[in-house]
């Protein structure tokens, strides 16, 4: 049954009797300065209209100054079930916790976390509710397909869903339904969410992976569904991707420090690459052999750009190498910066994004 430590598969007959009513679902979107994305995201999420109109949908805004709040207020005329919640904690983790604490009702059974940078297929929440009822896992996560309009964004979207860009993460472009240790957060059994204390409100990035660590420690299981997936809009510039992955690296290090855990091999690779490049740069004045690793890595990035240009049939693909380099270096350096920081593991503070 839902809320028990181990997931339980149900029959079709049991599925119909255990299916979650839309009125039992709380949908939360944390946001901060997302005027460019919030309207498109909400329109995609609110389908089918007759079903989604019965869900409580909350935008937890961290103090936007770009008109995000005004857009949500305007959309409330179209979607009366839409709520705007002030999130003084600013962070995504704090916003979702606040929505559960202030706007959830005793009858709510499912919490669906959404991302403003995502575009959702029609029936997304409905599909998650059905999958949760079928599998009865503590959490249901979804696969992500990166997308971008053109130029750098298009190339970054292509490379991030390859093993070079994602390290083989199951939810990045994945096709297989399976139990996983982490995935892109989607639907939670709300009792499980409350039981382990929700998100850590002090963690600015990687709060989803940190949550999954505690969920697993408590006996909860995470199911990666193949019944629905989302399109994720990549950051549009090299600088924006650099900042995003710097934060990702810092966030992952913060999670490992907090739980005294060992990083996985795919998490160590960008860190080792950054160390080798730094060491090579320092050694170049003393030996030409120090050029070997930078030359090898540069050849990988150049080859990536050429292959992407051919596969995408566009010069836009040439940006794939620089995008990959930014992801690797920013993640690795952000990780190292956090590991070497004397700050306590719970004190990494930043805005959402």
TrEMBL record:
It is an enzyme of class 2 (transferase). Residues 27-196 form the Glycosyltransferase 2-like domain. The chain crosses the membrane at residues 268-286, 292-312. The lineage of its organism: Bacteria, Pseudomonadati, Pseudomonadota, Alphaproteobacteria, Rhodobacterales. It is found in: Cell membrane. One of its GO terms (molecular function) is glycosyltransferase activity. Its EC number is 2.4.-.-. This is Glycosyltransferase family 2 protein. The keyword Membrane applies. Coiled coil: none annotated.
């Amino acid at each position: 049954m839902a809320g028990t430590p181990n997931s339980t598969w149900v029959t079709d007959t049991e599925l119909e009797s255990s299916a979650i009513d839309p009125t039992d679902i709380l949908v939360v979107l944390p946001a901060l300065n997302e005027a460019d994305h919030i309207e498109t995201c909400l329109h995609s999420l609110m389908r089918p209209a007759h079903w989604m109109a019965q869900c409580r949908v909350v935008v937890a805004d961290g103090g936007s100054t770009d008109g995000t709040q005004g857009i949500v207020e305007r959309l409330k005329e179209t979607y009366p079930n839409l709520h705007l919640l002030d999130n003084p904690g600013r962070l995504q983790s704090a916003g979702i916790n606040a929505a559960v604490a202030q706007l959830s009702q005793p009858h709510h059974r499912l919490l669906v976390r959404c991302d403003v940078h995502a575009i959702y297929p029609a029936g997304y929440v409905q599909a998650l509710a059905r999958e949760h009822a079928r599998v009865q896992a503590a959490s249901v996560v979804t696969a992500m397909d990166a997308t971008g309009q053109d130029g750098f964004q298009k190339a970054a979207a292509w490379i991030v869903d390859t093993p070079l860009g994602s390290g083989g993460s199951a939810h990045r472009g994945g096709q297989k339904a399976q139990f996983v240790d982490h995935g892109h957060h989607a639907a939670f059994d709300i009792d499980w969410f409350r039981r382990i204390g929700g998100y850590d409100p002090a963690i600015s990035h990687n709060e989803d992976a940190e949550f999954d660590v505690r969920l697993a420690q408590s006996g909860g299981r995470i199911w990666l569904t193949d019944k629905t997936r989302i399109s994720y809009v990549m950051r549009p510039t090299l600088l924006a991707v650099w900042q995003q992955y710097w934060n990702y690296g810092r966030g992952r290090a913060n999670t490992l420090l907090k739980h005294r855990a060992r990083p996985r091999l795919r998490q160590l690779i960008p860190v080792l690459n950054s160390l080798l490049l730094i060491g090579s740069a320092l050694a170049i004045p003393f030996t030409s052999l120090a050029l070997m690793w930078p030359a090898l890595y540069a050849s990988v990035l150049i080859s990536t750009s050429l292959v992407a240009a051919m596969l995408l049939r566009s010069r836009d693909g040439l940006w794939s190498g620089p995008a990959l380099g930014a992801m690797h270096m920013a993640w690795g350096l952000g990780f190292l910066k956090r590991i070497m920081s004397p700050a306590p593991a719970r004190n990494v503070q930043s805005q959402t994004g």
